Amino acid sequence: MGELPTESTYTPMSHHQNILQDILEGSSVQDTLVHSYKRSFNGFSAKLTEKEVQKLSGMEGIVSIFPNRIYELQTTRSWDFVGLPENVKRMPTVESDTIVGVIDSGIWPESEMFSDYGFGPPPMKWKGVCDGGHNLTCNNKLIGARYYESVLTTEGSARDTQGHGTHTASTAAGNIVKGVSFYEIANGNARGAVPSARIAAYKVCFSDGCASNAILAGFDDAIADGVDIISVSLGSDPVGFDFDPVAIGSFHAMQKGILTSHSVGNNGPDLQTVGSNAPWLLSVAASSTDRQVMDKIVLGNGKTFQGLGVNGFMLKGTQFPLLYGDNVSTICDTLAAKHCEEGCLDKELVKGKIVICDSAKADSETFTSGALGTILVSDPSQAWFDMSPVYPLPAALINTESGDLVKSYFNSTLKPVATILRTESIKDFEAPVVASFSSRGPNKISPDIIKPDISAPGVDILAAFSPAANPSSVTGDTRSVKYSILSGTSMACPHVTGAAAYVKTYHPDWSPSAIKSALMTTAFSMNNTKYSDAEFAYGSGQIDPVKALNPGLVYDAHADDYVQFLCGMGYDSSKVKLITNSTCPGGRTTPDQSKNLNYPSFGAHVEVGKKINLKFARTVTNVGTTSSTYKVKITSDDRITVAVEPQVLSFKSFNEEQSFVVSVAGDGLGLDEMATASLVWSDEVHIVRSPIVVYSQSIL
Predict the structure, then answer these.
(1) Which residues are catalytic?
(2) pLDDT per position as a tens digit, 56-88
(3) Where are the alpha helices (DSSP H) in 429-558?
(4) Whole-structure pTM over 0.85, yes or no?
């Protein structure tokens, strides 16, 4: 997606229509053209046959063509936990002029978290509109709304019918609303990081997913509308930057000074699953907070088991008949019945009973069949055991060890009974721990860039929700709520969006990379005892928004640096032009410079068994005190030796730059090993920390 030509006579829509007119075989331009990108970059999406694609690819001026892909949505105490309390120091006037753009599933404008009580008119820089379709009205808080009907859907509104977009927008920049909960669970005050900021919603996700042509349209408008930060909680499997609408759109945003925060995906704990890999993106992993919501199962013999689940129901009575899946099925074989597979349970047999099922996903079948409640039993390798889903009936998820004890009671008792108590909040002293579902590195697209970048709360997050969506996503659940509890990297992403917006209110002149650097180098160092993936799981650590206001030093980078990075990756000029509207020097690729991109972390993919001899060049900019001296400190595991030259950086002025070189040496790594170190610059006031990761995993 190139930049728009500067000639005043150029009309993108006419140009795109003329191109289509030349290649179409029988179809009209009106029926074929889906979207013309004409505000922030130049391109179009259209419904074409293979033959028409071939004709188009041979035309002069066509940089690249890629197919429409479907992306998925990736799904209070959290702000206090990361050190951003309600009474934190703020810049009220600047915050009120800050606009957060949310590219998601739309928004529920009537939510209290989007009320404009006490808000003045939108900032003068705002160039957007409220074009949310039928029956949607914006205000001085929610200042913009747009929707993009893809080739898959024609819902015709920016109104959120899934709850996801409302949840993410309110987490980033929602108003403070006191005394909210989900059926009295997780009581407290809901708020975003920047409650005085404005919100603009761009609906690109519908019930059938998020089409890449719609995602690009959202970026096209958000950039031109004048947003300050973009939040994108959606994604797919890793793809090349030239085929990735988020990478393309966010590059153009970065060129305009807009940072994009992006969720890494929910395909963990498998390695190489991160779907947010471009270095100009701020890629966000999900971690826990110190508040965990849990269920309790109480058996007739008095034994109690703690399970996972958000149970907003209060059972009327103390004990209820307990049955196993194969006791309540007359049509399925034993294994299918024990798993409570779809269509297996007999409605007459489960009525008024609590059913044991050997599956983490049997809540839909037990609910549909009319069971009173369900105990879900699963091996930890087959289910996520660090988050609590919202269930459509009283339910709790337990592991197989606890499940065996429950089944032993069931088999040894003439009339087994049990109950499931309402969910309660408990203290989690291990937090923050990266979530098992959070996608992991290494970076499949650019192996020397460590991804994720950073971690943020994404487990059991309470925020605003759409009353039009049912909270469990199970068909037949008729509940309607204003607030709900969700988990996912989708929930972590708006925490970082909000933190970035908070930093920008104090430093409106900082580049996107400077804000990103401030958040990464001041992050809270996380514990890797539960998961050995370390930085491939959580990046630089968990956000600390207040510390990020004063990072001392930042690693800055700009569009030209990223173009050079792409050329060094092997992208030729045509592919680079698709992403950036720039070309490689001399039109050719250049030597790989990934290790020398001015990035706040240091990464290197090395050959198995080969001696390690690496050098990283970096430049830091002084944004702390005018005159300061920073000394370096290195901690490292015993497989690598790290040296820095020079070891002292002396600054005499604000915004002064100083460069240094990091050398890493070692005897070599075995297959699928990683060696880590930490580099810290400190002037005894600021701690500027960067992880160093050298690894030998095979890039699949």
Answers:
(1) 104, 164, 490
(2) 666 666 666 667 666 655 446 788 888 888 889
(3) 489-506, 512-521, 535-538, 545-548
(4) yes
